[in-house]
Hints:
Layout: E1 2-7, E2 17-28, E3 31-37, E4 43-44, E5 47-49, H1 56-68, E6 70-85, E7 88-102, H2 109-114, E8 116-122, H3 123-131, H4 141-162, H5 165-172, E9 175-181, E10 187-196, E11 201-202, E12 209-212, H6 215-228, H7 259-263, H8 288-293, H9 317-331, H10 335-344, E13 353-354, H11 357-364, H12 390-393, E14 395-397, H13 399-413, H14 422-428, E15 443-444, E16 449-456, E17 459-466, E18 472-477, H15 485-488, H16 490-494
Parallel strand pairs: 1-6, 2-7
Antiparallel strand pairs: 1-10, 2-3, 2-5, 3-4, 3-8, 6-7, 9-10, 9-18, 10-11, 12-14, 13-14, 15-16, 16-17, 17-18
Helix pairs in contact: 3-4, 6-9, 6-10, 13-14
Amino acid sequence: MKTVEILGANRLENYTKTRDGSRAIIIEDGKILLTHELNSGWWLLPGGGIEEGETPEECVIREVEEETGVIVHPTEHFLTLHEYYEEYCYTGYFFICEVTEKGQMRLTDVEKQRGVQPEWLPLQDAIELFSKHESYADISEEKRGSYQREYIALKEYMTFASESSERQIFKRFPGVSCAYRDAAGREILKYDGAADKEKSISVDGGTVFPACSISKFVTALIVMKLEEQELLNIDEPVNRYLHEWKLLAPDGKESDATIRSILTHTSGIVDGDDSFYGLRRNDHEVGLLDVLEGRTPYNKRRTVSEKQPGTEFEYSDAGYCVLQLMIREITDSAFEEIAAEYVFEPLGLNKTFFASLKNIELREKEQSMAAGYDSEGILIMGKYPQIPDLAASGLWSTPYELLLIAKEFNMALNGRSLFLRRESAQEMIRPAESFSWVGLGLFLRGDDTLVSQGWGENGQSMLKMNLVTGEVSVVMTNQDPGVDQAESGVELLTEL
């Protein structure tokens, strides 16, 4: 059963009032039963508020009979929808129902005054009707919100009933969570499945997933924040800021690879074969220098600038390990602490963190971290891997908090952010010389879209943002699907 959350722009940080209700999807011969208010012209799915002592199923049976005069049998609770507006959380339980017999309409006086009557409408006409919810934004926020709710419910019904691509993708993973922001600034969350199959913990809006290589986007933000403080220059050789360890060229001399070249994967650093996976929490703790020196099965190849910087694109986790060490040396603080100080705390993100072993131990107690499953669907040993290369792939977050980072980045591009300077954001989307598809910690699409994506042994994720419209989509999962985002369906979910 999927859950969707609609996050109203006027919502308070913590709601204080709740209202629960049930609504019915009743389809016969390609038509759907709706209530039609003749005086106002409103159409709605039949349903209403849950009374004290009543279950959602009992509520939908009663409300449908009162409003339409038919008795129904709920066959499937397919959707729960939470709407957050001002101080309220409205929860709607949506049921697929079958008509079993005739009943008796019992309209309230208010409903009689409004001219409420049941009408059957072709299903596609109903979807088209409710799809125009945004056109009522300047006329009636109540009508806009009601029509948006009904539209989402009908779209989710179509997904559920048709074995659509979206439903198949959701079924492919133990748990899936998504966050969307449209061009009008409306924000919606969708999630379903298991955060932890063994403990029967379901995914919810607060479930934290591995972001994997989306970590590199956040690392790039940290680097740009340090440059704003004049603690580094991204066009200087990274070795200028390294003291404990040096990045060498093939001849054994110090490499002239710049910070920018490492951020864009053009520094000449090449990762070892079969590296950067397979480390478990109960394994001996691997240090960052062990990774850089190639002294561990996690990475057997010493990190060297093997090719002339700027001549080839070579995607590299090891390069971001160099940046992690650089940040640690510049700030004299642990990388995960700097990330919290420079990014997460200023943006009010309390679910997002870099997964040092200490942080995993602390966060695990909250039971909000999604357990990781391998490509066969088997729980990985220890539930969560050990990730010494935090800057490359150690980020954990919720789709919504990643959406907030992307939203703030887009604001920075337009000069409306107190978090990041416009010049810094624009520098991040400037294409690398000779490699037009890569920016700093981000990849550039030709349709004004920025992409950051991650794929690890315990999950797969993807973030997209449109520079022109401000649209953002984030999808996170807790299983290695064994194929990339295009083939697994994760990329398709970012387009919905």
